[in-house]
Amino acid sequence: MRPAKSSNPEHVRRDRREKIRRQRLASPPLKSAYPRLAQLQLKFVFADGSPRAPVAQTHILHPPAAAFFHFPCGFADCDGGFELAPVISELANAWTRESVRHFECHGVRARDRATGQHCGLKLECTIAMHFANDLAA
Question: Which of 104, 129, 130 is nearest to 118 (CA)?
Answer without folding.
Answer: 104
